[in-house]
Write a structure and sequence with these properties.
alpha+beta; nine-stranded mixed β-sheet; elongated; Guanylate cyclase; peptide receptor activity; transmembrane
Length: 1243
């Protein structure tokens, strides 16, 4: 420390750090660098004159590179564009993750068919009901359509009967006999009965269903729309039971056929268009169907045998119909039940996935918002909140000098206070640096807390100096934004419109309040604050020392200017004569006294002021000043205790007092989230509701069956292929069961037919010949002749379709090829696009369909095979079964499914019509079998058409829903991506901005230590490190006091900003870290944050650090410590080399920057020293990264006693860089009274 410390001041209103004197304005900012970084002389002078910096300056700092920063932020994010949708949203993005499957298992019961919590189940059902409100109406309309088709079928059968079996006398006897036999086996139905009873019943069902459904969804009295599901289920249940009962009672022998058609069509409609929990309600209806079917048969059979006899044609026909219709009924219900289960579980998984996504999204947003708020609060602890808000509006980027000007203001009536510890130099020399840092933290903690109480804004701390103001950020503010259109004379002549604000403690501001009133208010408040911190300083425990530090305070009131200075470690600064005068009052004051000017006395005359003799103030001349000793106000108030002081600081929050930073816990469990409030339930109901139709139309074409963007279509198909991967395997397995069950059906059918055809009664023989063909009796007798031994050919003859060993091998081969190729596509990386699996399954199903139809056709046209009279009946179940498997277990898109139906229809009519036309000649021969065949063919064709309509519409509805869900997930992920991108961009910008104020390592510690939103003062005290081998530079602008007195403050501010912009850019080039700027003083280090760092985190180690460093410099270390000493010396050499090159660049560059108006170059005076120091954060408001130690004071002394336009260095620096052209300069005293030789280096 030097005796010159007493002369320390701030020419631009910024105090100097410990151990350096003020001369000509403070320690100087040195400028330097290669010519490539610097503007050339005249042009630069002209730019400074016009207050407009060159574009070069605006590109040297991250804040001045808004476009680059924003572009890099966008590039680093995953922001979605149309071309990225395949990469981001296909594949795993739409697939079930193990975590989702585990959560689903934990949240559901009954094999995934019900959520454990009733509240969750209600939300799911409500969302499902809203989603399917239009689909249900389509289902009711389809039921009525089926009734119309039933009427059409009856009408066609009646027409056919009227044409071929008219009730007229002139028909041939053979034709009459054929018609009578056909009539005895098949009733063509009563057309009048259909029109009178069936059609109105279906119409009533449709009207009641649609009316109740619309009422529930439109009525505001019904809040839970899940009631629509119950209404739909009840209507289907009641109508189905009534229809089954009417069919059984009105159709004695044909009711199994009609029951089969009604059940299959009705259940299929319900499956796709009911909008209910599919599996549970579908199971109930299926059980109802099977119970009624199997209970009705014995009752009906008893009735028929009682009425017609056991051997009657009616009894045989009923038995045969029941046997044949049971298989397709059971097969259809089984296939649809399995599909309903898979569909139900899939819907519930999708719902839960949506809930998880919403919770994750909210959690991410909350975490991002929390981080953003934490960082913003940290920023607001270093900059005024108004400045932070303006920077936030500009994305923390300054793109023009107008924006820099917008961050600057002129203030009037501002009261500024400088408080400093007298004797701090001697005190810090006796006390270890960690204890000094701890003492300063305790002291400034008291000061910071009193700022809140007295509505005072802490401007900054510099070592032991504390600067505060009232009237800039707090108090009564009379401020004006800087205008580039007015000259200084114009500003003085014009009526300034002040933006008047005040805090809640200041009372309401009147629009006509005078400058005098604001100045008086701010001055009185500052004096009260000064007295409070004077009393508070007495409460802080001072480490034992022969010279305890004592507080002295200087105050002055007047105008000033505020703004942001620098680009690295930027600071909110106050400039102007008021700052300089307040600093001089502090420097020339006395311990335990408040020293002030006559202007302050005029504004606050009520204190016990002591008039002093006039003193000569540097830059001001003779001034009348006054003292307010501590004894005059010692008893005015109680001394506050450190433990009692508490203020709203986000770094010192306790008990969750900062509510803005207390985000509600993100609901990790969807159950708890859904059960919270009705508003939450309505929000989560959206998880079950896809996007709106209007939104969906904007993204799709071709009736919603394709996305407009080809990339989106590929992404959808790829995701759908992954989602149905397991379902496809299930479909192939079910196909094998269908083939095997076909053989079982053949055996059961054979047993029935054999029992009929081997009966010796005339009725049984005629029935067997008519129903199964002329050779049926002979085949039955032939089997009896073989002792009842069945052959494979006997079984397939009575199966649904004849599977020869060759055809069975082909079908099983295709069915085995399908899973293999499916597995290959999904598991091999060589197939990038998984939607080829959908094409593969479509090809396999189509090939199997072709094979089956070829087999069925060949079985009809081969001479050795005899056709049954009802052979068309088997074609319907075969076609419908494969259509069901394809629609429920393949995931193929609607276009391919429709193409499959087109192929199936072409095959059906292409193979069946030639057979029908070929057999038409039999009608002329009086064959009654043809009449039965045509009857079955018409009914089968109508059934195939109806099922085709139902399944195609069902597939369309399913695909639209699936595509909507895909689009919903894309939109949610896109929205989430956008939110995260925006939050991350803001967080990143704020983080980078924060790292420009304090070292990045401390930023991480501050942020990581606030996970519970509370950081104790103890933690702040522990953020200290001892640094060995670091090198520090002080640079001061020569003649700054005179210059600042002659030039407008804004031009001074502009000049300093331009100069510091260049210095800051040179920091990166030379690996230097800008520590701070104090007025015109620029302080930088190497080895503290950048360079070769040797850090000690233990405070105990710091006491011996300086002796260790000195021993290394003097080469007095022992042999055992030689290795570590060599490392320290090497690190020190590297650090000094980097900082010396930085100093040279500053000196060279400063010569080319011209001061505005005076038109003289900016000459720097630079001092450098190497040694040890202690670093840490001081204060709790306006956090300050501070370094302390004797070597810091020596570096400041090097600058203070240096020579303009040269570098003044200590002997430690010269010792480590002996090749430089050093010139001995002078001897100076260290704090331990030892002399030290210093050196000059010309640049």
């Amino acid at each position: 420390m030097t005796a010159g410390r007493k002369e320390r001041g701030s020419e631009a209103g910024r105090p100097a750090p410990s151990g350096r004197g003020f001369e000509d304005g403070a320690v100087a900012d040195a400028l330097g660098g290669s010519a490539a970084h610097l503007p050339q002389g005249p042009d630069q002078a002209q730019l400074v004159e016009s207050n407009e910096p060159p574009d070069l300056f605006m590109s040297m700092h991250p804040l001045l590179q808004a476009k680059t920063l924003f572009a890099s932020s966008r590039a680093s994010s995953s922001y979605l564009v149309d071309g990225d949708v395949t990469q981001l949203y296909s594949g795993d993005a739409l697939d079930d993750t193990p975590l989702e499957n585990r959560i689903f298992r934990d949240r559901t019961t009954c094999f995934g068919l019900r959520f454990k919590l009733l509240s969750v189940e209600r939300v799911f059902l409500n969302g499902r009901a809203r989603q399917n409100k239009y689909v249900v109406v389509v289902g009711y309309a389809l039921v009525f359509f089926l009734s119309l088709m039933e009427v059409l079928k009856t009408w066609l059968l009646k027409k056919f009967k009227d044409v071929h079996c008219p009730d007229i006398e002139d028909n041939s006897a053979e034709t009459d006999f054929s018609c009578s036999k056909a009539e005895s086996f098949y009733s063509y139905g009563a057309f009048a009965y259909q029109i009178t009873y069936i059609l109105p019943s279906y119409g009533l069902f449709t009207v009641l269903g649609i009316a109740s459904h619309v009422y529930i969804h439109k009525s505001k009295r019904v809040h839970d729309k899940a009631w629509a599901m119950l209404a739909t289920f009840v209507l289907y249940f009641v109508f189905g039971l009534a229809l089954y009962t009417a069919t059984i009672l009105t159709r004695e022998k044909q009711w199994p056929d009609i029951f089969l058609n009604s059940a299959v069509q009705g259940l299929t409609v319900y499956l796709f268009f009911s909008g209910t929990p599919t599996f549970s309600s579908f199971s109930v209806l299926s059980i109802l169907t099977l119970v009624v079917y199997f209970v009705a048969f014995p009752l009906s059979y008893r009735h028929v045998t009682t009425k017609f006899g056991e051997k009657s044609t009616e009894a045989l026909e009923l038995k045969t119909n029941f046997s044949q219709d049971t298989y397709p009924l059971l097969l259809t219900i089984f296939i649809e039940l399995v599909g309903a289960y898979i569909s139900e579980v899939s819907r519930r998984k999708q719902f839960l996935r949506g809930v998880i996504m919403i919770n994750q999204q909210e959690e991410i947003i909350q975490q991002k918002a929390k981080n953003e708020t934490i960082q913003k609060d940290l920023l607001e602890n270093m900059l005024p909140s108004s400045i932070v808000s303006k920077l936030q509006e500009q994305n923390f980027a300054v793109q023009s000098w107008d924006q820099v000007r917008s961050l600057s203001q002129r203030h009037s009536g501002v009261c500024i206070m400088f408080a400093e510890l007298e004797g701090f130099t001697a005190f810090s020399a006796e006390v270890s640096p960690p204890r000094v840092m701890e003492y300063l933290n305790d002291l400034f903690y008291v000061f910071d807390s009193l700022c809140e109480e007295h509505d005072v804004y802490k401007v900054e701390t510099v070592a032991d100096q504390y600067v505060a103001a009232v009237g800039v950020v707090t108090g009564k503010m009379l401020s004006e934004e800087l205008s580039r259109d007015l000259s200084e004379n114009d500003r003085q002549k014009s009526d300034v419109k002040f933006a008047m604000d005040e805090t809640s403690n200041g009372g309401s501001a009147r629009s006509d309040e005078s400058l005098l009133g604001a100045s008086t208010f701010n001055t009185v408040r500052m004096i009260d604050f000064a007295k409070a911190i004077m009393r508070g300083s007495k409460c802080v425990e001072v480490p034992s020392s022969s010279v305890p530090p004592m507080l002295r305070i200087g105050i002055h009131t007047g105008p000033c200017m505020s703004g942001i200075v620098g680009t690295k470690n930027l600071r909110f600064c106050l400039f102007g004569d008021t700052m300089n005068t307040a600093a001089r009052m502090d420097q020339m004051g006395r311990a335990d006294c408040i020293h002030t000017t006559e202007d302050v006395i005029d504004l606050a005359p009520g204190e016990a002021w002591e008039k002093l003799r006039r003193i000569d103030v540097k830059g001001k001349g003779l001034m009348q000043t006054y003292l307010l000793p501590y004894s005059a106000f010692e008893k005015d108030g109680e001394n506050p205790s450190v433990s009692e002081i508490c203020f709203e600081n986000p770094l010192l929050l306790k008990d969750g007092r900062h509510k803005n930073l207390q985000p509600g816990p993100a609901p990790h469990l969807p159950d708890e989230a859904l059960a919270a409030t009705p508003s939450n339930r309505s929000k989560y109901e959206e998880c079950a509701t896809p996007v709106k139709d209007s939104v969906y139309k904007n993204y799709t074409k071709h009736l919603g069956l394709a996305f407009k963007k080809f990339e989106w279509e590929k992404a959808y198909l790829d995701g759908e292929a992954r989602l149905v991967e397991i379902e496809v395997y299930i479909g192939y397995f079910l196909y094998v069961l269908v083939l095997l069950s076909n053989l079982l059906f053949g055996y059961i059918n054979y047993v029935l037919h054999h029992s009929i055809c081997t009966d010796s009664s005339l009725t049984a023989v005629e029935f067997c010949q008519l129903k199964f063909g002329e050779l049926a009796v002979e085949q039955a007798q032939d089997i009896d002749g073989r002792d009842g031994r069945l052959s494979y050919n006997d079984i397939i003859t009575y199966s649904l379709f004849r599977m020869t060993p060759a055809s069975l091998g082909i079908l099983l081969g295709l069915n085995a090829l399908g899973p293999l190729t499916h597995w290959f596509i999904h598991r091999k990386n060589c197939v990038k696009s998984k939607y080829w699996a959908l094409v593969n399954v479509w090809v396999i199903y189509t090939a199997k369909l072709i094979v089956i139809f070829v087999i069925m056709y060949l079985s009809l046209v081969m001479p050795e095979q005899e056709k049954n009279a009802d052979w068309p009946w088997g074609w319907g179940p075969v076609l419908v079964t494969q259509a069901l498997l394809l629609v429920m277990y393949s995931g193929v898109p609607m276009t391919l499914y429709c193409a499959w139906w087109c192929i199936a229809t072409a095959l059906y009519y292409g193979f069946s019509l030639p057979v029908i036309l070929q057999d038409k000649a039999l009608l002329d021969e009086g064959a009654s079998m043809y009449l039965i065949t045509i009857n079955e063919y018409i009914k089968t064709s109508i059934i195939v058409f109806c099922m085709g309509v139902i399944l195609c519409l069902g597939k369309y509805s399913k695909e639209i829903n699936t595509r909507k869900r895909f689009l919903q997930r894309v939109q949610v992920l896109k929205q989430q991506d956008e939110i995260i991108r925006q939050k991350t961009r803001t967080e990143t910008i704020q983080h980078e901005f924060l790292e420009n104020i304090i070292p990045p390592s401390l930023v991480k510690k501050l942020e990581s230590g606030r996970e519970d939103l509370s950081v104790s003062l103890v933690r702040l005290k522990t953020m200290t490190e001892t640094h060995l081998g670091m090198c520090i530079l002080y640079a001061d602008l020569v003649g700054f006091t005179t210059f600042s007195a002659q030039v407008d403050p804004f031009k001074v501010f502009t000049f300093l900003n331009q100069l510091f912009h260049i210095f800051d850019s040179l920091c990166d080039e030379h690996n230097a870290y800008k520590l701070e700027t104090v007025g015109d003083c620029y302080v930088a280090t190497v080895g503290l944050v950048t360079g070769e760092r040797i850090n000690l985190t233990s405070p105990k180690e710091s006491d011996s650090a300086r002796e260790m460093h000195r021993s290394v410099m003097q080469s007095t270390v022992s042999c055992d410590a030689l290795s570590s000493a060599g490392s320290m010396r090497s690190a020190s050499s590297v650090n000094i080399r980097n900082l010396l090159e930085f100093a040279k660049a500053m000196v060279r560059g400063s010569r080319q920057v011209m001061k505005p108006e005076v038109r003289t170059p900016a000459i720097m005076r630079v001092g450098i020293h190497s040694g040890t120091c202690l670093s840490g954060i001081v204060g709790t408001k306006n956090l300050k990264f501070t370094v302390l130690g004797e070597d810091i004071d020596i570096a400041a002394q090097m600058e203070h006693e240096g020579k303009p336009d040269a570098i003044h260095a200590s002997e430690d620096v010269a010792f480590l860089l002996p090749k430089e052209r050093w010139v001995k300069f002078k001897l100076i005293e260290r704090s331990d009274r030892e002399p030290m030789q210093t050196y000059l280096l010309g640049v």
